[in-house]
């Protein structure tokens, strides 16, 4: 009998797979909403709606990443067949580490920006407490970092997808299939 976080011999557990793909959808929402904010004037309610969506979904990623980490620690990782080179394994570990850093660091930085600006921290209708006392100069500095990390996220997520497709179509191993339900 398997637990909720265990794997079959060739695939990740259903909760791990579901969490992976759900978080992709949340990331799409984050990037769509941040790009739609400036499509509307500040007076338009849609401007604030997309801001709140961006903030809430970013904080959702921050909450869900901890669940993913628990799944990762309690579960097992199915082997890649055929086994990749040591260099590919190291690159994959660094890529995953960078993605986890993105999922923790970007939302924390966004939360800190709002805190430093003295603004509410919306999370799907709730207001979370501030992480910092108001300091607009610090807020501007953190915002620059948050935006740079957000831009880097496009490349990390895109690189992750390209690597999975490369493994599937070029290397022809089971890397992508491990994250697909049978």
List keywords for this structure.
182 residues; mainly alpha; Fumarate Reductase Cytochrome B subunit; two-stranded antiparallel sheet; elongated
- The shape, in one word, is elongated
H/E series, N to C? Answer: HHHEEH
Strand order, sheet with most strands: 1-2
Say what oligomer this is: single chain
- Count structural domains: 1
The helicity comes to: 55-70%
Question: What top-tier CATH class fits best?
Answer: Mainly Alpha
Please identify the structural class as seen in this structure: mainly alpha
CATH architectural arrangement: Up-down Bundle
CATH overall fold name: Fumarate Reductase Cytochrome B subunit
Report how far apart the termini are: 18 Å
Share of residues in strands: under 5%
Number of strands: 2
């Amino acid at each position: 009998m398997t637990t909720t976080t265990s794997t079959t011999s060739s695939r990740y557990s259903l909760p791990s797979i579901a969490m992976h793909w759900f978080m992709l959808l949340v990331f799409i929402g984050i990037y769509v909403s941040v790009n739609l904010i400036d499509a509307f004037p500040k007076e338009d309610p849609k401007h604030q709606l997309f801001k709140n969506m961006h903030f809430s979904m970013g904080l959702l990623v921050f909450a869900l990443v901890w669940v993913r980490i628990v799944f990762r620690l309690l579960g097992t990782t199915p082997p890649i067949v055929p086994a990749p080179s040591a260099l590919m394994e190291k690159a994959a570990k660094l890529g995953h580490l960078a993605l986890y850093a993105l999922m923790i660091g970007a939302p924390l930085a966004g939360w800190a920006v709002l805190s430093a600006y003295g603004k509410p921290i919306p999370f799907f209708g709730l207001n979370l407490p501030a992480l910092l006392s108001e300091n607009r100069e610090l807020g501007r500095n953190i915002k620059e970092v948050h935006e740079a990390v957000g831009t880097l996220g496009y490349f990390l997520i895109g690189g992750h997808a390209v690597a999975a497709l490369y493994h599937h179509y070029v290397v022809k191993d089971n890397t992508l299939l491990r994250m697909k339900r049978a």
